Amino acid sequence: MSVYIDQHRDRFGVEPICRVLQFAPRTYYATKARPLSARALRDAELKPQVARVHRDNFAVYGVDKVWAQLNREGIRVARCTVARLMRDLGLRGVVRGKPKVTTIPGEAAERPRDLVDRRFKAGAPNRLWVADLTYVRSWTGFVYVAFIIDVYSRMIVGWQASRSLRSDLALDALEQAIWARSGRGHRIDELVHHSDRGVQAEFNRSSQHRFVESIVNTR
Questions:
Q1: Alpha carbon distance 84, 105 (integer Å)
Q2: pLDDT in tens, 26-40
Q3: Which CATH number fits domain 128-218: 3.60.20.10, 3.30.2350.10, 3.30.420.10, 3.30.1240.10?
Q4: pLDDT digit string (tens) for 185-210?
Q5: Radius of gyration of the chain (CA)
Q6: How far apart, in whole angstroms, are the C-alpha atoms of residue 155 and residue 212?
Q7: Among 138, 144, 125, which residue's Cα sits nearest to residue 188?
Q8: d(Cα 71, Cα 126) in Å, to the nearest integer?
């Protein structure tokens, strides 16, 4: 609050601003008279150093490299502090490498009719499931995860993980969800399964997957 008042006091005055904000002027003046905390003083000392290291390295250094460089220079600071100060200063590093792509549009594949019509609502469980793919970084590399969500309950009813983005990953997650729900006595005969246009979500039409087609209306 005091920062906002400082930014506008020359134009409007302290008392009018405090009156509009229902903020006691004496509280503002007490805050201004109070000495800065040790953390605030340390931040004021470190921010120019963080900005300098980032600027001197062509604005490509991220948190880890800025933190390492400061410690090499004898400026002892925690990594979390560097991350917080860079966030306050609006500084970011450059991420190398190509971005991970989890969905490759299957332009050549036949697109099934959209049974959902982009209305992602359900009146009961096991009426509409949606599928998606994402990835997480691990110590050994990226892991791709396919998951099935029940639109009504927002519950993840099936999932599968793989080190590679194979085309049947989404189908494996769907099969797991079907077996798990039907095995517990849930009715899924009115279920619609919705996936995106990626080739990873297209279903293998081989005989081992025909039970999916007979149970689920797939999109």
A1: 38
A2: 999 998 888 888 999
A3: 3.30.420.10
A4: 777 777 877 766 544 444 433 333 33
A5: 27
A6: 20
A7: 125
A8: 55
